[in-house]
Design brief:
- The protein is α/β, with parallel strands linked by helices.
- The chain has eleven helices and 14 strands.
- The strands form four sheets. The protein has a five-stranded mixed β-sheet, with helices on one face. The protein has a five-stranded mixed β-sheet with strand order 11-8-12-7-13. It has a two-stranded antiparallel sheet with strand order 1-2.
- Helix 1 packs across helix 3.
């Protein structure tokens, strides 16, 4: 059994894409497909369902996968034990992240990351939609939502502290709410899907169904519209800390913390066979955000 064929199969199982898996290993789509066919012929079973749109594992493929991972992990461990190979991170790395967070906090560190790992090339997708990692063939996803897929691993990068805020102009014109209930008398700027704001009260979690004239799918737009005085908003401090420092936004209702404070996570497939390029990126951003983030001091 050719170990490179096994390695290719594992990457196909992760990416669900023969062309992408082959590209990562320096193979053309035709050669990658031929290697997989040879592996299936040797095993005497079909491992992969192939369609024009995507691939999926057969029942036999799912049964073979954990054994293939164990075999490859054992070989890599044996090579490391005798100093074979240096595991220098190389290859094409696909990363997805929320648009605002990616632009504000990942883009500025890319130059340093690429200088540290000259053998890595990056493919970045910034989107505020939750991207299917397997379907999209991504190696890493940066998320600020709870992990629901048990086949993925999550590593915490930083807190995602969220606050209620308003501009000085808005407060001067409309007053400052003193309790969550008073939000019902104000214009609230909402992020799509977060129209109901929840607060930790002494004896309960209180839900306020907000109303307002502005709703958007962008956290940066929520912040900027709030700065313009069009209403009260929830904003993550990593998004609004500079505006708070400049006095353009003022935290309000500070005695009523929001329920369900989140975190920023690096999410990636099973760590049993973590590619050096994936580990390098995760370690790099974890170290960068490992100190108390400057937006959360």
């Amino acid at each position: 059994m050719n170990i490179e064929h096994v390695r290719l199969f594992i990457r196909v199982a992760t990416t669900r894409n023969i062309s992408l898996a082959g590209q990562e290993l320096g193979l053309s789509p035709a050669v990658a497909s031929a290697h997989l066919s040879k592996l299936e012929d040797q095993l005497g079973v079909r491992l992969i369902h192939r369609t024009t749109r995507k691939v999926s594992l057969t029942e036999e493929g799912n049964a073979f996968l954990p054994h293939a991972e164990d075999v490859l992990a054992s070989i890599e461990a044996a090579r490391s034990a005798v100093g074979a190979g240096n595991n220098v991170p190389t290859g094409h790395l696909r990363v997805t992240a929320p648009t605002s967070f990616g632009r504000m906090h990942l883009t500025p560190i890319l130059k340093s990351f690429l200088a540290t790992y000259p053998g890595i090339t990056l493919d970045l997708r910034f989107s505020d939609s939750i991207v299917d990692m397997v379907e999209g063939g991504f190696d890493i996803a940066i998320r600020n939502a709870e992990l629901k897929d048990s086949s993925l691993i999550a590593r915490k990068l930083a807190r995602d502290t969220r606050i209620i805020c308003a501009s000085p102009d808005y407060i001067e014109q409309h007053g400052e709410p003193k309790t969550p209930d008073e939000l019902l008398n104000h214009q609230c700027i909402t992020l799509m899907g977060l129209e109901q704001w929840q607060f930790n009260m002494p004896d309960e979690v209180k839900t306020i169904k907000t109303k307002g004239r502005v709703r958007t799918d962008s956290g940066e737009v929520v912040r900027d519209v709030c700065v313009d005085g069009l209403g009260i908003a929830i904003s993550s401090t990593w998004c609004s800390y500079q505006h708070i420092q400049r006095g353009q936004l003022i935290p309000i209702l500070t005695n009523y913390p929001l329920a369900g404070q989140a975190a920023i996570w690096a999410v990636y497939p099973s760590s049993r066979l973590l590619a050096p390029k994936v580990r390098a990126f995760i370690d790099f951003v974890t170290e960068f955000f490992g100190k108390v983030p400057y937006w959360d001091q």
